[in-house]
Specification:
This protein is 37% helix and 26% strand. By secondary structure, it is an alpha/beta fold. It has three domains: 2-176, no CATH class; 196-441, Chondroitinase Ac, Chain A, domain 3, CATH 2.60.220.50; 445-732, Rhopdopsin 7-helix transmembrane proteins, CATH 1.20.1070. Strands 15, 16, 19, 20, 21, 23, 24 and 27 form an eight-stranded antiparallel sheet that branches. Strands 1-3-5-7-9-11-14 form a seven-stranded parallel sheet, with no helix packed on it. A hairpin with a 3-residue loop joins β15 and β16 (291-298).
Length: 734
């Protein structure tokens, strides 16, 4: 069939010149030309030697054509035993192809389901392009080539898919549709209060293509989950009344649930476009920072007894997809499995409503399993999910396999099959979005409030003494043999670390929704605490050298290492550890408390260096005590008198705290209330012990304090008063 409308100058064109057609069944050739201008020597469908053809179609639709120039569409020869070969071309508003040839091929043998589609819209100047020039295809089964070009301008000498010598081909697909990704955009600077998020998700909802490329799907998913990070931030509440606050909190919860449903719907729609028709089986997988996915499809001629387990980093699924396919008329089925790494920020564990007042903790990544493009989705047997624990398991806690039901997590149809400290196996009789939630008893409110109050008081007291010690080190006059570099930097690092941690905990409800800010704070805390420990190690080394050379201390006034070099070591080591940690696991920062996450053992980026430093400091401290004990025995009677001995014992014990050794209690305090209180009190008072040892118990500094306070009362100038330094104590000299 041919339809020509408003034609102007074809120029020596030949349409459908062919020879040798044998045993043909259902051969169709359609041509629709509208408003044509100057084809120039074109030949459409010139072919010969067709044998035993079944359902061969060639359709061409040309609209508003201008100057093809020597084009030839579908020139081919030697087709044998063809079954379902289709070639469609749709050209709209074309301008100057220039010597183009579309689908020039030869020698096709035993072809089964070969498709070639081309859709060109608003084209301008291809310039000598040739699309799909190939020859020598043998025993072909399901070969597809799709091309979708929209609003094209000047390709210039392009050739798409030029190939030859294909033998025994089975399921070769080539899709080209550049316009699919370009249309999905998220406005820069988009906020949750605007409508840009709605526009973005509407763009995805409007996608009608049944099949998209993997690159297109992953690109859109990346944008979608970047947007979901903003959707997880609840709007600030300006109300102060309890009833209004409760209403605002409920509204925020409902908004989070709605946003979570939107992201789930978008994800499941996009991953369904990865399902392609197949006669046997097909498998597609991808890994993104926020989500992992896998799609497995089986067809009517699948030879597998069961499909392999679908795995992601933190989860896996076992499903009887073969049985589901057999229950469908098409004898085919597909399963899409996704693991969301950040979905718990939207679908929070608190959405799991239980009668008892417990603490809910998300123990797994949120996963989703669906049967896209499958007519009958009834399960033949329960589906088993293996969920790896992403947080430390509490043996006293209770685990529940739950699924998402629009606005809450519920357990209907799901149960725990097996569990240990590392993973849990859940069994469910339906497919949905699933997670593993742990319930633990909530501590008594009075105990919790007491610990918060104690922590607040101890940290504030410690900060005051850190500040006093720092002022003393900077403003007071010290003997030439005393080096306070390590002590000053210990005070600076721990003062800033404790102050930042205290402020973060006090304003956690405001900081936590700002995920980037929370991650930055946790990284800064990581650096400050680590630098504090490095300076503790430097102080331990200095103390060991000082005690070792105690007999020479009166004449040895040279610094072992320069202050500048010590500063480089003290801060550079901590900076390197933090930078390497952030580079390897950037998502490791920003826990619920704006501290380091425990996922994937990332907490050891802090505990590892701390353990090494504590072990070395403990060893050095023991060596110092042994050396100091033997040295004191040989001192004169004035130094070894009882009062000085008591002061020396106190300084020694206090030095144990200054060097950070009591931090070892943190490894044993988990769950032990007494050890937690002891750990909190001792380690928050490092500034207090530094101030006592090096300032209050130092005769020179004490005299300067006395002079300063006397001048405050009498109105004299402290600079006019001379202080004659006395010998510094062993623990305060350097």
């Amino acid at each position: 069939m041919s339809h020509f409308h408003n034609i102007y100058q074809f120029h020596y064109c030949s349409f459908f010149t062919a020879s040798h057609f044998h045993n043909i069944y259902q051969f169709y050739f359609y041509s629709h030309f509208h408003n044509i201008y100057q084809f120039h020597y074109c030949s459409f469908l010139r072919a010969n030697h067709f044998h035993n053809i079944y359902q061969f179609y060639f359709c061409s639709h040309f609209y508003n054509i201008y100057q093809f120039h020597y084009c030839s569409f579908f020139t081919a020869s030697h087709f044998h035993n063809i079954y379902q070969f289709y070639f469609y071309s749709h050209f709209h508003n074309i301008y100057q192809f220039h010597y183009c040839s579309f689908f020039t091929a030869s020698h096709f043998h035993n072809i089964y389901q070969f498709y070639f589609y081309s859709y060109f819209y608003n084209i301008y100047q291809f310039h000598y392009c040739s699309f799909f020039t190939a020859n020598h295809f043998h025993n072909i089964y399901q070969f597809y080539f799709y091309s979708h070009f929209h609003n094209i301008y000047q390709f210039h000498y392009c050739s798409f898919f030029t190939a030859n010598h294909f033998h025994n081909i089975y399921q070769f697909y080539f899709y080209s549709s550049p316009s699919t990704v370009i249309n999905i955009t998220l406005q820069e600077g988009c906020t949750t209060s605007g409508g840009c998020f709605d526009d973005f998700f509407k763009q995805i909802d409007n996608i009608t293509a049944p099949v998209l490329s993997l690159n297109t799907v992953t690109s859109i998913l990346t944008i979608a989950f970047e947007a979901s990070e903003s959707l997880a931030i609840p709007p600030p509440s300006s109300s102060s009344s309890s009833s209004s606050s409760a209403a605002a909190a409920a509204a925020n919860q409902a908004k989070l649930a709605s946003n979570g449903n939107r992201v789930l719907k978008t994800s499941e729609k996009l991953i369904s476009t990865l399902v392609k028709p197949t006669y046997t089986s097909d498998n597609v997988s991808f890994t993104l920072p926020a989500v992992e996915g896998q799609v497995f499809t089986v067809g009517p001629q699948v030879t597998l007894d069961s499909i392999p387990r679908l795995d992601t980093t933190n989860s896996s699924v076992d499903i009887d997809l073969i049985g589901i396919a057999k229950s469908n008329n098409e004898r085919s089925a597909a399963v899409a499995f996704m693991s969301y790494k950040t979905m718990e920020n939207l679908l929070k564990p608190d959405f799991y409503i239980t009668p008892n007042n417990t603490i809910k903790t998300m123990m797994s990544t949120v996963i989703s399993a669906t049967l896209p493009k499958t007519t009958n989705t009834t399960l033949t047997k329960p589906v088993n999910f293996t969920l790896r624990h992403i947080r430390e398991f509490d043996p006293s806690g209770s685990l529940s396999c739950v699924y998402w039901n629009i606005s809450e997590w519920i357990v209907d149809g799901c149960s725990v099959l097996e569990t240990n400290s590392s993973y849990t196996v859940c069994s469910c009789d339906h497919l949905s979005t699933f997670a593993l939630i742990m319930q633990t008893s909530r501590p008594p409110e009075s105990d919790s409030q007491l610990m918060k109050l104690l922590n607040l008081v101890c940290v504030i007291v410690g900060l005051v003494f850190f500040s006093l010690a720092l002022l003393s080190f900077v403003l007071c006059q010290w003997s030439p043999g005393v080096n306070n570099v390590a002590r000053i930097n210990i005070c600076i690092s721990l003062l800033l670390a404790h102050l930042l941690f205290l402020l973060t905990q006090q304003f956690l409800s405001l900081i936590r929704p700002q995920q980037v800010l929370c991650a930055v704070i946790s990284g800064l805390l990581h650096f400050l605490f680590l630098s504090g420990f490095v300076w503790m190690f430097i102080e331990a080394v200095m103390l060991f050298i000082r005690v070792k050379n105690l007999s020479k201390i009166s004449s040895n006034k040279e610094e072992v290492l320069s202050s500048g070099f010590l500063c480089v070591i003290g801060y550079l080591v901590a900076m390197i550890v933090v930078c390497v940690s952030a580079g390897l696991v950037p998502e490791g920062y920003g826990s619920e408390d704006c501290w380091i996450k425990r996922d994937k053992g990332f907490i050891w980026s802090f505990l590892g260096p701390v353990c090494v430093i504590l072990a070395l400091n403990t060893i050095l401290f023991i060596r110092v005590v042994i050396s100091l004990s033997s040295t004191l025995k040989s001192q004169n009677a004035e130094v070894s008198q009882m009062k000085q001995t008591k002061i020396m014992v106190f300084k020694t014990l206090a030095q144990f705290v200054v060097l950070g050794c009591p931090w070892i209690l943190g490894f044993f305090a988990n769950g032990n209330e007494m050890l937690e209180i002891l750990f909190l009190i001792v380690n928050s008072q490092q500034g207090t012990f530094i101030f006592l040892i090096y300032c209050v118990l130092n005769n020179e500094v004490r005299q300067q304090y006395w002079t300063f306070f006397r001048c405050l009362c009498c109105g004299c100038k402290p600079n006019n008063i001379k202080i004659v330094p006395k010998n510094a104590s062993i623990m305060s000299r350097k």
